[in-house]
Amino acid sequence: MLQEAYDLLQDILGDPLLADLPEDVDTEDVRCQIARAKGHVIDLTLLRPGDNKMRVSVLHNARVSDLQRIVTKAIKRSTPDLPKAYSWRSMWRRYNLSVGSIKLSDRNRMLIHYGVKNNDTVSFTKRVAVTTTHAPPPPQRRR
Questions:
Q1: How far is CA 24 from the centre of its chain?
Q2: Which residue of 8, 49, 62, 128 pairs with 66 in a disulfide if CB–CB is 3.0 to 4.6 A?
Q3: What is the pLDDT of residue 132?
Q4: Burial state string for 5-41 with b = 16 or more CB within 10 A and e = fewer than 16
Q5: Do residues 54 and 78 touch, judged by C-beta distance below 8 A?
Q6: 29-32 contacts: CB < 8 A, separation 24 or more?
Q7: pLDDT at 82
Q8: Euclidean distance between CA atoms 77 and 50, whole angstroms
Q9: 29 near 21, Cβ under 8 Å?
Q10: Could you tell me which of 115, 110, 118 has the C-alpha nearest to residue 45?
Q11: Beta bridge partners of 98
Q12: 10-residue block means of pLDDT along the chain (143 residues)?
């Protein structure tokens, strides 16, 4: 039974449509590859610090959080010497993704609402802390 499942898996992975999948494939990768065959993906170039370029693909209805997850996965795959304890949560608090001069700051907003198109270049930009002005504290009463 196990051999039959293994043979079936090898047949599926031998399909030319799925030949571009990485070794540590998950369902999101398979979904994206099928959507690519149907023409429903946005291909982006991720520009990392040091002029390292990397191709990433997202579904056309993806949100910024989906792109962040795909970028995280792509960097983990391409950088084997990255520490296991690297804090991605901290990284996403310090950096935004941007397309041109547009910062993708709202994680729940769809990429197409930001005007992201096929073959755009996505880069990391430092997140600017938003400071709010507070009203001065009320004067202290004398007793």
A1: 17
A2: 62
A3: 67
A4: eeeeeeeeeeeeeeeeeeeeeeeebeebbebeeeeeb
A5: yes
A6: 31/59, 32/57, 32/58, 32/59
A7: 79
A8: 18
A9: yes
A10: 118
A11: 103, 123
A12: 78 68 74 84 89 88 93 86 82 90 91 92 85 72 72
Residue 82 DSSP label: S
3-class DSSP assignment, residue 109: coil
What sign results for the dihedral spanned by CA atoms 16, 22, 25, 28? negative
- Helix/strand number for the chain, H first, E second: 4, 5
- Rounded to 5 degrees, what angle do the CA atoms 2, 3, 6 make? 90
pLDDT at 43: 92
Q: Evaluate whether 98 touches 120 at the Cβ level (below 8 Å).
A: no
Secondary structure of residue 6 in the 3-state scheme: helix
**Is the separation of the CB atoms in 101 and 115 below 8 Å?**
no
Which is nearest to 56 in space by CA: 130, 134, 116? Answer: 116
- What is the spatial distance between Cα 92 and Cα 96, in angstroms, rounded to a whole number? 7
pLDDT of 64: 94
Query: What per-residue confidence (pLDDT) applies to 119?
Result: 92
**Which amino acid would we find at residue 5?**
A
